Amino acid sequence: MARLSLNPSAKEFVPPGKGFQESWQSPFHQKVTEASLADVFKDSGKIVDCRVCGDPNSAMRFAFIEFADERAVQQAIKLNGAKLGKYPIRVMPSKTAIVPVNTSFLPRTQKELECCARTVYVANIDKRVDREDVRQFFETLCGPVKKIRLLSDYNKVSSIAFVEFAGFDSARKALDCSGALLGMLPIRVTPSKAPVRDEY
């Protein structure tokens, strides 16, 4: 099984994945949906998941697409430079894997959908790290944090967190923090499909 890692020094901590990141910049693409984007890449191979990220009201957005096998990834990368509407897209191997989501956690309103675009899911957090440590880490490297939900299970060796940023650019910067040490463990950061809610 192929591995796609952000940090070569932390390969063993990056979840296995077969995907790529695709990004674009164009007012046209504000209306692109996950379904329509998946349709563009369907001939590359079987698509497992597709996630569009970033501010839905901004010209700068990006997406993650996961395929069933490595061959499909290589076919998809060949679409680098192809036009989506009037503008070319940039396709590259992904630095993160897409994490499955419980459908009951998905956004229920347009406001929650916009919050998701500013939220990241963080895994493999050292249990000695508290909420304020998480806030300080991400605010120092990425920008102001609006909400944090830090979750821990007695049976798990590490914690997870949902971190909502004040700005979309900060959330995108946070994705580049995969592999960075928070406490004594290298964290994994992926786009969140769930907003930060009090009732989790």
Automatic annotation (TrEMBL):
Alphabetical keyword list: RNA-binding
Keyword Repeat included in the entry's annotation: no
A GO molecular-function annotation: RNA binding
Residues annotated as domain RRM: 27-96, 118-194
UniProt keyword annotation of RNA-binding present: yes
Organism from which the protein derives: Coccomyxa subellipsoidea (strain C-169) (Green microalga)
Record-given protein name: RRM domain-containing protein
Annotated Pfam families: PAM2 (PF07145), RRM_1 (PF00076)
